[in-house]
């Protein structure tokens, strides 16, 4: 199963979510990718994202941002966005794939909550975001694995 995490610039939230998901998926049963809806490629993950993930034992230091494309959407089995706004943009651009596009909190918890954007914040803002992501990504992993690896 291919899971894609999407945010705005693909330098903070989506690389952190992807790294966290991969760290939870110890057996490597999932293919994980990330992208942004408005990226300036290629850009590394933000310094604070790399720092906070390292504190959690996750290495995203080699991340490079990329702009989401129709091919990325088509290849993914599940697309999880950081906000309902991101979800709406993708559904508007790719309506034929709307059945596999969800916001992260929508899929994890059934809520309309968004993952706060740490961009430009200090390391504590990134830590808060990382905790929010870890909880949601863990809930997604548990949900998928309890369904036998299906969406």
Description:
The chain has a 4-stranded parallel beta sheet, sandwiched between helices. With 151 residues, the protein is an alpha/beta fold. It is globular and about 40 Å long. It has 6 helices and 4 strands, in the order E-H-E-H-H-E-H-E-H-H. The model has no long low-confidence stretch (mean pLDDT 96). Helix 1 (13-24) links the parallel strand 1 and strand 2.
Radius of gyration, CA atoms, in whole angstroms: 14 Å
**How far apart are the first and last residues' alpha carbons, in Å?**
9 Å
Main-sheet strand order equals: 2-1-3-4
Question: Which H/E pattern describes the elements?
Answer: EHEHHEHEHH
The percentage helix is 40-55%
Residue windows where pLDDT falls under 50 for at least 5 positions: none
Structural class: alpha/beta
Beta-strand percent range: 5-15%
Number of strands: 4
Shape: globular
Number of helical stretches of at least 4 residues: 6
**Mean residue pLDDT:** 96
Largest sheet: 4 strands, parallel
């Amino acid at each position: 199963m291919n899971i894609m995490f999407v945010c705005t610039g693909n330098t903070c939230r989506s690389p952190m979510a992807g790294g966290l998901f991969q760290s939870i998926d110890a057996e490597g049963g999932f293919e994980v990718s990330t992208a942004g809806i408005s990226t300036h490629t290629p850009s590394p993950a933000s310094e604070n994202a790399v720092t906070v993930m390292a504190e959690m034992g996750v290495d995203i230091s080699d991340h490079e941002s990329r702009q989401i494309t129709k091919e990325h959407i088509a290849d993914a089995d599940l697309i999880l966005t950081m906000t309902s706004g991101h979800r709406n943009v993708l559904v508007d651009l790719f309506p034929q794939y709307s059945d596999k596009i969800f916001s992260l909190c929508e899929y994890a918890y059934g809520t309309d909550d968004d993952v706060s954007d740490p961009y430009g914040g200090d390391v504590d803002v990134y830590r808060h975001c990382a905790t929010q992501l870890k909880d949601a990504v863990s809930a997604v992993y548990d949900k998928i694995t309890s369904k036998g690896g299906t969406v």
